[in-house]
Amino acid sequence: MSAQPLFELWVYLAATPLAGLTLTLVAYAAGWWSYKQSGMHPLANPVLLAVALIVSTLWLTHTPYKTYFDGAQFVHFLLGPAVVGLAVPLAREWGNVRQLALPIAGAMVVGSLVALGSAVGIAWLLGASPATLLSLAPKSVTAPIAMGIAEKIGGLPALAAVFAVATGVIGATFGKYVLDGCRVFDWRARGFALGLAAHGIGTARAFAVNADAGAFAGLAFALHGLAAALLLPVGFAVWSRFG
Amino acid sequence: MSPLLAGFTWLLVFQCLGEVLVRLAGLPIPGPVAGLALLFAVLLLLSEVPNALAAAAEGLARHLSLLFVPAGVGVMAYLGRIADEWLPIVVALFVSTLLAIAATALTFAWLVRRSQRQQEKVLP
User: Fold this and answer.
1) Half-sphere exposure of A229 (CA within 13 A, CB side)
2) Are B115 and A192 in contact, with CB atoms under 8 Å apart?
3) pLDDT, tens digit, for every residue of B96-113?
4) Quick one: A71 and A87 in the same domain?
5) Whole-prediction pTM
6) Are A40 and A120 members of one domain?
7) Are residues A39 and A92 in the same domain?
8) N or C end of chain B, less CB within 10 A?
9) Do A118 and A91 reside in the same domain of the chain?
């Protein structure tokens, strides 16, 4: 068989959404399989493996990101309904939230200020450009919310999404070691910290480890997304007027 | 209507309502976040979560990491900028994420211990 028909087949497939969509699901299945095989080891993060596989495939086949995203957007779109669906764990955990109102509110304020302040502060000290700084600001909230916030405050939405995903992967991968080092072994505190600092990817990690941790991660993820989406654009508007 | 389909319809309807609310009121928040707040208010009024809605929301939550893959692949579009500013970006992402996890967990655990001690004082 000569290469010509194969090449034509590839050109045809790459031009339909089918290729990007299939590549996303197959790469994720491979990432998930390795994660399972490793006994859910935090270093074998399925998102990291899937992204690495897809980027290498696109690079080897000289496929631009836009062509890939034409297919992958169907998966990306589901982030919207997934964010809306966070109302479910929030409503279910409402009793817990009211009982633990003080720890939740305190950890939320401290955690989100540390995440925002240290990210922007460190990047500024090391000389990052303004567009990068504004895209880093919402990195601890989930990608679709981060994109929305970055757009409102003048960052680059797609870059903010990349930073948010990287943050999620870093938190889910190394969070366990930080929490062990801090000697925090309360599952609710561990889950809450992962959900707040590493949004959906940290929440997925927390659910894989312990149900209580997962519930509190989902709670922190939802509350932080909501609070950041409400306060960051307002805070930024005030700061840029008087700053 | 199958439960999964019904649950999905709930989510999309509230996402639409959220988008409409944000546009009409000129709110500075993303549409899905407004949808989340509206659905949460309705669920508190209903005082229970419909099974179909729970099935769809939990189905999406279980595979949440998959949904971040397309946005993560976007890294290839910004390789130039990231290569130019790799030091501030890498240091800021690592240090601030791990610092935020430590600060959140320590604050949460400390406040839980403190409120438990206060309850012990009140009870005879």
Assistant:
1) 27
2) no
3) 999 999 999 999 999 999
4) no
5) 0.85
6) no
7) no
8) C
9) yes
Best mutation site among B14, B51, B65 for testing chain A: the one with the most A CBs within 10 Å?
B65
Q: Do A81 and B60 touch (CB under 8 A)?
A: yes
Residues A126 and A228 in one domain: yes
Other beta carbons within 10 angstroms of residue A5's beta carbon come to 9
- Which range marks the domain in which residue A145 is found? 83-242
- What are the Cα distances from residue B48, in Å, to A87, A92, B36, B44? 12, 8, 16, 7
User: Which ranges of chain A have pLDDT less than 50?
Assistant: 1
Where does chain B have alpha helices with state H?
A: 3-25, 31-46, 51-62, 64-67, 69-73, 79-84, 86-122
Q: Strand, helix or coil at A85? A: coil
Per-residue pLDDT tens digits for A93-150: 888 888 899 999 999 999 999 999 999 999 999 999 999 999 998 888 878 788 888 8
Q: Choose the final residue of a domain: A47, A77, A107.
A: A77
**B76: which residues sit within 8 A by CB, 6+ positions away?**
A55, A58, A59, A65
Write out residues 57-76 of B within 8 Å (CB-CB) of A: 57-58, 60-62, 64-76
Cβ-defined contact of B68 to A170 (cutoff 8 Å):
no
Structural domains of chain A, count: 2
